[in-house]
Automatic annotation (TrEMBL):
Name the record gives this protein: Two-component system response regulator YesN
Organism: Paenibacillus prosopidis
The keyword Metal-binding is assigned to this record: no
Pfam families the UniProt entry points to: HTH_18, Response_reg
PANTHER family according to UniProt: ARAC-FAMILY TRANSCRIPTIONAL REGULATOR, REGULATORY PROTEIN POCR
Domain Response regulatory as annotated: residue spans: 4-121
GO BP annotations listed: phosphorelay signal transduction system
Record-annotated HTH araC/xylS-type domain positions: 431-529
An MF annotation (GO) of this entry: DNA-binding transcription factor activity
Length: 534
């Protein structure tokens, strides 16, 4: 019998040393592969059948323990030998618990390495003999849940026709455990939000935790159903039984409530469970489409179990007179009152079941239109005020639920009304502008850039600044630059060329020209006449 082997070690000389010690022909090794990190090793495993793995433990891009865990999950027939410079018993114990066949210390004698490889080959041969007569059965046992999941996904995504004859052919072809008497209860789980900021990797881990918990709490016995990821943030549970069986809908609803409670407590998630009606396999795609539509339209109710009922199309228009009142409130009312009115309005719509995704989207559009109109009347530039990352994220997610919409409402109303109030106190705006100019006097300061700092139209800011200082924006910047240049000329020994740069002029000749215009003499002459240091 022949074997294929891989050596995984981040030290190139260690890999080459092992290769030179091995007599491949004597050991019956027809394929020898090398990898210097976990990623390279996984790539080789995906393309080759590896019988034996010689692996280091400590590697900079992932430990040998991590690689062994992955190999045991994806390639359980591979025998692993650790070859390491660590004699720590803790490492050896953990390696053996993970299924490592042998544990050798560097530097290893060729005879000991050969002995370990022979031992691995003996284990491989014995396992092959045990499984030879039932290979196809073992393969089915290993992959049956994936095969069943693929069957349902193909059916739901219309990759397979929803036709009883075509479905029966696939069932027989892939040995799917479905009989003519089988009937199914689909339950869609929709994650509506995570109550904790998560990295992408953490979110994936929690999604698998949600899946495992659904299998345990809702299905119970895995032979009675399956749970799998349908889309991002969506799981589908399919419970199976024979037709005529007592489904115990109350028990199913209780299990879903327990599941929601567990997810709230342990997995930082708000979600809903949507129960379908019992269907035959050919009816599953249509039923799941209905459940997904219910999830899309559920913008008001969270952490609830929703028994099946026929979808009702809601086509209730937004009450525009209400927004006329809102526009008036923005101009005359307090922030707290405006927010309270909107909360009450949305709550009433939700309680009367007159709120779905379409209505919430309409609300969002009209609400923002009123806010933009309000900002326009105060000459605040909305695209600048709400151009920050937090605002963009809130605007993007507001349509998902009433909770998200109210988060946006509070953010927008507070920010818009606070800034509008500041505009009324024009001296506050002028002070902000003056401070910004002083801190950035060496930069290219255009009217537009300065106006952006207070979210105002440049012409409106010019009027405010001129009323306060007597200067337009451009003239004020020049006067501040000349003022600072005069101080530097008379109170320091800094070269005039550097002074020009420090007050925002990259061309010395241009600085000299501007300075002479406003000081009525050149910078050199000014320094000579008014210098106060020796």
């Amino acid at each position: 019998m022949t074997y294929q082997m891989i050596i995984v070690d981040d030290e190139i000389h260690a890999v080459e040393g092992v290769k030179s010690d091995l007599d491949l022909n004597k050991l019956g090794i027809t394929g020898l592969f090398t990898a210097y990190n976990i990623r390279q090793a996984k790539d080789i495993f995906e393309n080759e059948v590896i019988d034996i793995m010689l692996c280091d433990i400590e590697m900079p891009q992932g430990s040998g323990m991590e690689l062994l865990t992955w190999v045991r999950e994806h390639h359980p027939n591979t025998a692993t030998i650790f070859l390491t410079s660590h004699a720590d018993f803790k490492y050896a114990k953990e390696a053996l618990e993970l299924g490592c066949l042998d544990y050798l210390l560097k530097p290893v004698l060729a005879i000991d390495l050969e002995k370990a490889i022979r031992k691995a080959q003996s284990v491989i041969d014995r396992n092959m003999e045990i499984s030879r007569n039932s290979k196809s059965h073992q393969l089915w046992l290993k992959h049956h849940s994936l095969i069943i999941e693929r069957f349902w996904l193909d059916l739901i995504n219309h990759s397979m026709p929803s036709d009883p004859v075509a479905i029966r052919e696939q069932i027989e072809c892939h040995h799917i455990p479905i009989t003519e008497d089988s009937i199914f209860l689909p339950i869609l789980i929709g994650v509506q939000r995570w109550n904790k900021t998560l990295k992408h990797r953490d979110e994936k881990i929690l999604e698998y935790a949600l899946k495992n918990t659904a299998e345990e709490v809702i299905i119970g016995n895995k032979e009675n159903g399956i749970c799998f990821h349908l889309d991002q943030g969506k799981l589908l549970v399919i419970v199976t039984a024979d037709s005529g069986a007592d489904w115990g809908y109350n028990q199913v609803q209780d299990a879903c409530r327990q599941y929601i409670d567990a997810c709230n407590r342990y997995f930082y998630s708000d979600l809903s469970c949507y129960l379908g009606q019992t269907v035959e396999a050919y009816e599953m795609a249509s039923m799941v489409a209905d459940l997904k539509a219910r999830d899309r339209n559920n913008v008001a109710f969270v952490n609830k179990v929703h028994p099946y009922r026929d979808l009702q199309q809601i086509d209730q228009p937004i009450m525009l007179p209400y927004f006329s009142l809102l526009s008036s409130l923005l101009k005359t009312g307090s922030k707290e009152y405006v927010i309270k009115e909107i909360e009450a309005y949305l709550d009433e719509l939700a309680r009367n079941q007159g709120l779905d995704a379409k209505i919430l989207h309409q609300f969002n559009q009209v609400f923002m239109q009123v806010v933009y109109s309000y900002l326009y009347s105060t000459e605040i530039q909305a695209d600048k005020l709400f151009g920050d990352e937090d605002s963009r994220q809130l605007l993007q997610t507001a349509d998902r639920s009433v909770t998200d919409m109210l988060t946006l409402v509070r953010h927008v109303v507070n920010k818009a009304m606070d800034h509008a109030e500041a505009i009324k106190e024009s001296i506050t705006v002028v002070q902000t502008v003056k401070r910004y100019i002083a801190l950035n006097i060496d930069q290219d300061l255009s009217r537009e850039l300065i106006a952006e700092q207070v979210f105002l139209n440049p012409d409106h800011l010019t009027r405010l600044l001129k009323k306060e200082t007597g200067y337009s924006i451009s003239d004020y910047v020049i006067m501040e630059r000349i003022k600072l240049a005069k101080e530097l000329l008379t109170q320091t020994n800094i070269p005039i060329s550097l002074i020009a740069t420090s007050v925002g002029y990259t061309h010395f000749s241009h600085f000299t020209k501007i300075f002479k215009k406003y000081a009525e003499m050149g910078p050199t002459e000014y320094r000579a006449q008014f210098r106060t240091i020796t």
